[in-house]
Specification:
Blueprint: H1 2-20, E1 47-52, H2 58-65, E2 71-78, H3 81-92, E3 100-103, H4 107-114, E4 119-122, H5 126-138, E5 142-145, H6 153-166, E6 170-172, H7 180-190, E7 197-205, H8 209-212, H9 222-229, H10 237-246, E8 255-262, H11 268-276, E9 295-301, E10 306-312, E11 324-327, E12 331-333, E13 339-341, H12 349-359, H13 362-374, H14 380-394, H15 402-409, H16 411-420, E14 426-427
Helix pairs in contact: 2-3, 5-6, 6-15, 7-10, 13-14
């Protein structure tokens, strides 16, 4: 009788533990691997670049890279040849040589096979990011890829393992890490002004309802289709990237587990019906199960810190990435305005300017004003591109590595899994395989670089002097 009672008691305890512990289905064996965090690849005097994907983001990348004298765009690729020809004109308008043209569904494969490259810059739809990144690294190239790096845990691991095996950088192009307030607060964190960070918030709240349903928007309505495939946070990295760097994620701490919740779709289905009533083209998108309009994901780190992420690209509300960091000595928040507090009241505009003057990082002081002139979301895109090329030319570690790419992107499938499992807790894989315990924090100094010049000649920007 006692043995049966003991058995039932132990079974009850084990059952409760099974319910409370996070899911471990995404864990990988901690095999020995080369650590890409802090890795400095051999110097490249002139970085030969191929840009793949010339739809919405690609032409801007070609424009920005054309200003950097330390790189040469040698190949351009898109499924549609007319897009390639349009991008070629960006180069010739600046007196630069045309690049080798590739087009068609498999044009990128021919490019990787035929071209001698240093960097492949990927601006394609999300589903191509992981396979293109893996193929580019296996072909002997560093990779810079638009966000997210992958849409599944399997592909996240594949990207990580390929980078480690080839010792090629795989940087996700998270431009928001280079925005000016984000860089200011990161440096203030490094200087200890906020004390120990304990909580952070990030988001991608951007009304894209009309654009996602626009015929001339995303090719073959691919982004709208992604909103049907998966119910979770489809675009976490703009909000997560900057706060993850502040919290030293993968470099002293790691994301441990998360729980996510979405409310129902109240807008996309209705939009599809409205448009289908006027145009039969949209009939395909009627009666689909769209993802919940707002997803909120809560993450807990190994050291007991928390992160809140939100994603909403349908509601009629102002743009926000939140960018909130809260520490034991201070608080910062960007949206709707830039604010910093070291107590119950915000410090005000004048004192905020004093902080900018004192704590703007060396990198931003060096290239920031020129980045604003070149542009790309107010300059952060160009600062990211220039920094990437400068690091490659000087053989320096990149600010973002493959572990950041994978861990920030894995929120997409993990949030969807949590929502699907009625908001159950889901474990976040450790893509560093334990190396997070001793990896050094991101270094935003110039670190011996800063010698990459900028071309001042531009048809569109007369009288612009950008030589460093």
């Amino acid at each position: 009788m006692n043995s049966r009672r003991d058995f039932l008691k132990k079974a009850s305890i084990l059952s409760s533990l099974a319910v409370s512990l996070p899911t471990l289905v995404h864990a990988e064996s901690a095999t020995e691997a080369f650590n890409m965090c802090g890795y400095a690849a051999p110097k490249i005097d002139k970085v030969k670049v191929a840009v793949i994907g010339l739809g919405m983001r690609g032409p801007g990348a070609v424009e920005r890279l054309s200003y950097i004298a330390g790189c040469e765009i040698v190949a351009l690729c898109d499924k549609y040849p007319e897009r390639v020809e349009k991008a070629q004109k960006i180069l010739t308008s600046k007196g630069l040589n045309t690049a080798k043209s590739y087009s068609g569904e498999d044009g990128w494969k021919a490019l990787l096979k035929e071209q001698e490259l240093d960097l492949v810059y990927i601006c394609t739809p999300w589903s191509y990011h992981a396979p293109m990144s893996v193929a580019a690294m296996k072909a002997g190239n560093h990779v810079a890829c638009e966000v997210p790096i992958a849409l599944s845990i399997k592909d996240c691991w594949e990207v990580v393992k390929t980078s480690e095996a080839t010792r090629k950088h795989c940087m996700m192009l998270e431009n928001c890490c280079y925005d000016f307030f984000e860089m200011l607060t990161l440096n203030m964190v490094r200087q200890g002004l906020f004390g120990e960070l304990v909580h952070a918030e990030g988001a991608y709240i951007h009304d894209l309802l009309d654009l996602n349903f626009a015929k001339n928007g995303y090719d073959n309505m691919w982004r709208l289709r992604e909103n049907i495939k998966m119910n979770g946070n489809l675009y976490p990295t703009h909000g997560l990237g900057p706060v993850a760097q502040c919290l030293n994620i993968n470099r002293g701490d790691k994301m441990d587990h998360l729980v996510a919740m979405s409310f129902n779709d109240f807008m996309m289905g209705e939009k599809a019906k409205e448009l289908a009533g006027k145009d039969s083209f949209f009939q395909e998108f009627v009666d689909k199960k769209y993802r919940g309009n707002m997803n909120t994901t809560l993450i807990r780190t190994a050291k007991g810190k928390t992160i809140m992420l939100q994603h909403d690209v349908t509601s009629p509300r102002p743009y926000s990435r939140l960018h909130t960091i809260s520490g034991t000595k201070g608080f910062a928040q960007k949206y709707p305005t830039e604010n910093i507090a070291f107590g119950h009241e915000f410090i005000g505009t004048e004192k905020l300017k004093e902080l900018y003057d004192k704590y703007t990082p060396e990198l931003v002081k060096y290239i920031g004003e020129q980045a604003k002139q070149v542009g790309g979301h107010g300059g952060m895109d160009f600062m990211m591109d220039w920094r990437l090329i400068d690091c490659l030319r000087n053989g320096l570690p990149l600010d973002q590595d493959v572990y950041d790419a994978a861990s920030w992107s894995c929120i997409v499938p993990l949030s969807a899994e949590s929502v699907e499992r009625n908001c159950k807790t889901v474990a976040v894989p450790d893509f560093t395989k334990g190396a997070w315990k001793h990896n050094a924090p991101v270094d935003i100094s110039l670190r011996g670089g800063g010698n990459t010049p900028i071309r001042s000649k531009s048809v569109k920007k007369e009288n612009l002097q950008l030589d460093v």
